[in-house]
Amino acid sequence: MPLHIHDTLRREKRLFEPRDPSRVTLYVCGPTVYDYAHIGNARPPVVFDVLVRLLRRTYGADKVIYARNVTDVDDKINAKAAKEGAPIGTITARYEAAYLDDMARLNVSPPDIAPHVTDHMDAIVAQIGAIVDAGCAYAAQGHVLFDVAAYPAYGALSGRNLDDMIAGARVEVAPYKRNPHDFVLWKPSKPGEPSWPSPWGDGRPGWHIECSAMIEENLGLPIDIHGGGIDLVFPHHENEIAQGVCAHGHAHGAAAHDEYARYWMHNGFLTVDAEKMSKSIGNVLLLHDLVQSMPGEVVRWALLSAHYRQPLDWNQALLDQSKKNLDRLYGALHRAAAVPAATDEAPADFLKSIEDDLNTPGAMATLFALSSEIERAMTAGDTAAAGLAKGRLIACADILGVLQSDPAAWLEGEVDDALRAEVEALLDQRMAARAAKDWPAADRIRDRLTELNVVVMDGPRGATWRLKN
Ligand code: AMP
Ligand code: ZN
Predict the structure, then answer these.
(1) What is the pLDDT of residue 168?
(2) What is the pTM of this model?
(3) Which pLDDT does position 273 carry in this prediction?
């Protein structure tokens, strides 16, 4: 089955047909770099990393262009810099570096393009100018505002009706707005805040225009897929469409949406112990801390264990199960360590799941079936079957971005250097004692290993070990 994805705009699963199969384009809204990302923020980059891996496999590694921006102009960044008394660039560089480090631990491949807002002021100012020229935006008191009434399809992505929105508006309306839902494309900066020149006065862009300008500049319009979390549907993505379409003077007609992005994908939200993550509840889990305390693949597996459009509850049972699942898969790979992989093709049932709007739970079921197949074949001494199942398992895992560690190292687990050194010394002594047929010494060593909670596995390439759970 060719790839089908659920399109938020059309509210249905659609066959994915790129505009140009030799240049498939994808944009995902990236982090605002003012603090460490929380675990919810990690869901979009992991989900869309799976999509990118699948697209590369389907269309060719060099035929897919994936952009994930870095928002390095924002009030929260200014506030953090002021609080620390540090330059803005120090804050953004620090949290961008931390984000990329944490992404690497989750096996998230770097995007092809990581556009920064600060590098795109000319493109942003040019796009605002084009929207003004098209009659869809107006300048007022140092601001430039998008005129939502000038874009008849406004509300199509989120399913909102502008008239209802106006009737129900409770927002405090700034005096310079013609319509309460008009949104900022450009605004003046306060003294001391970063500011750039523009035809409407010095200032800085609104958030929405950053993405539509960076998309046009880096990928060209229309792009194939635009992704992000479900909270971005309104207003962020609704506003992006309005800007992207109007900048080209195509404010009318139902097909205008296709001139910005052809498919819209949104991931569901993550809760922690069934509650919304929030600073006031005190349950905000930072990705940076999580990947220090457990392997990144456990976090990745947990994030992919629910379908991406469904809510995902983050809790200890989910993490325990994810670790157990990975241990099982690594165990099979370890058992077949000496058997060469006999294929690099993922089997049809895996592709059927993953191409069905990224059904990762279904795809994971194939991984378990393949690990059982490896175990069965190894027990039966059928290395041909084991090699085939192993190759298939690795091919599937490469699309999900898991099982990227050495199986023996994984099973040994995360242990501190002193313990690792002691265990390895004991294993050497054990080998020497066995070679010398010094059974009392071998027994003493075994007892010490048991004391240390170490399980030893003798295999064709010598002994490996892990800590007992
Ligand atoms: P932000 O830094 O708030 O703009 O969020 C960055 C990305 O993370 C956006 O795509 C959000 O939609 C997404 N996101 C934020 N919170 C959550 C959450 N609790 N669950 C899933 N995605 C989230
Ligand atoms: Zn965006």
Answers:
(1) 67
(2) 0.89
(3) 95
CATH number of 322-410: 1.20.120
Atom of ligand 1 nearest to the CA of 271: 19
Q: Would the CB of 29 count as within 6 Å of ligand 1?
A: yes
Residue 444 has a pLDDT of 92
Give the model's pLDDT for residue 174: 85
Structure tokens at 410: 């994984």
Indicate which ligand has the atom closest to the C-alpha of 228: 1
Structure tokens belonging to residue 424: 């390895």
370 CB near ligand 1 (under 6 Å): no
Torsion of CA 430, 432, 437, 442, to 10 degrees: -20
Q: How far apart are CA 323 and CA 302, in angstroms?
A: 9
Distances (CA, A) of 125 to 106, 188, 199, 205, 274: 36, 13, 8, 8, 43
Distance 237 CA to ligand 2 centre (A): 7
Domain-by-domain residue ranges, the chain? 322-410, 414-467
Give the model's pLDDT for residue 170: 64
pLDDT per residue as tens digits for the range 358-383 = 999 999 999 999 999 999 999 999 99
Separation between Cα atoms, residue 353 and residue 158, nearest integer Å? 27
27 alpha carbon – ligand 1 mean position (Å)? 15
Which parts of the chain sit beneath pLDDT 70? 167-172, 251-255, 414-415, 459-461, 469
Distances (CA, A) of 250 to 96, 209, 218, 233: 36, 17, 21, 21
Ligand 2 centroid – CA 278 distance (Å): 22
pLDDT at residue 453 in the model: 84
Q: For residues 433 and 447, give the distance between their C-alpha atoms in angstroms, rounded to a whole number.
A: 14
Q: How far is the CA of 446 from the centre of ligand 1 (A)?
A: 49
Q: Across 336-419, where does the E strand assignment appear?
A: none
Parallel, antiparallel or unpaired: strands 261-267 and 223-229:
parallel
d(CA 413, CA 158): 45
Please calculate the CA angle 157-160-166 and round it to the nearest 5 degrees.
Answer: 135
Task: Kindly identify the ligand whose nearest atom is closest to the C-alpha of 30.
Answer: 1
**Closest ligand, as measured to the CA of 284:** 1
Largest CA distance in the chain: 91
